[in-house]
Design brief:
Helices cover 30% and strands 14% of the residues. By secondary structure, it is α/β, with parallel strands linked by helices. A hairpin with a 2-residue loop joins strand 7 and strand 8. The two termini are 12 Å apart.
């Protein structure tokens, strides 16, 4: 029986200012999807509200739009998956061996307070599954607790998009909060690469996190190795 992976994507289409679009950073999904597909894993996509997941425009421009993302954009079947993602209440966590939170700045608004995603994540973790994220996807782990009420990330090594990277990307002033600092406040042992935007993956047991968009493939490979 093949392994099953649940991908999490955003429903948010813009920053606080509706005139400034954002959304899913597509390659963070496609790079992982390609790795898992090569392993023969079954994959499904969920979002906080279900339905459409908008795409981050900046991720669709050269040189960030690579072959993996271009292939997805050209595939009507795969684009349809992002037009009709599952709702959390339609997901049975027992069906999945791993959950993988994708990024894009949009997730900072709808991932942290999704009780449905928290329920799924807690259940997968507590039955021995893998919890993983890349880039801003770690915002989906900020408020996830274990059955005893402690934060899932407390005392565990994690990484995710750093504040330095926010500043260098020119978007720090648009952020609703400092994700790196919020992760530290939950008691996590946050780490980052010496160089901004360098691929970096941290694995603490069954918790696997990647720092930025360029870490998606390596994050997925680590998840696959654990599976």
């Amino acid at each position: 029986m093949s392994k099953r992976v649940l991908h999490v994507v955003t429903n948010v289409a813009h920053y606080a200012d509706p005139s400034e679009p954002t959304g899913l950073w597509l390659s963070e999904l496609t790079h992982a999807w390609d790795v898992f597909a090569a392993k023969g894993y079954e994959q499904r996509i969920v979002s906080p509200k279900g339905g459409a997941s908008p795409l981050e425009p900046r991720a669709l421009k050269w040189p960030l739009l690579d072959a993996s993302a271009r292939a997805w954009l050209a595939d009507e079947g795969r684009m349809a998956l992002l037009a009709s993602t599952a709702r959390p209440d339609g997901i049975d966590p027992a069906d999945y061996d791993a959950i993988y939170f994708t990024g894009g700045h949009a997730v900072m608004w709808d991932f942290p307070d999704s009780e449905g995603l928290q329920r799924i994540t807690q259940a997968i973790w507590e039955r021995g599954g893998i919890v993983s994220s890349v880039c801003h996807g770690y915002c989906g782990l900020l408020n996830t607790t274990l059955a005893d009420g402690t934060p899932l990330v407390a005392g565990r090594r994690v990484t995710g998009f750093s504040w330095t990277e926010e500043v260098l990307a020119g978007v720090a002033k648009k952020m609703p909060y400092n994700a790196e600092e919020e992760m530290k406040r939950r008691g996590s042992r946050y780490e980052k690469a010496l160089l901004p935007f360098a691929p970096h993956v941290v694995a603490d047991g069954r918790l696997v996190t990647g720092q930025n968009p360029f870490s998606a493939k390596a994050t997925a490979r680590k998840v696959a190795a654990l599976l």
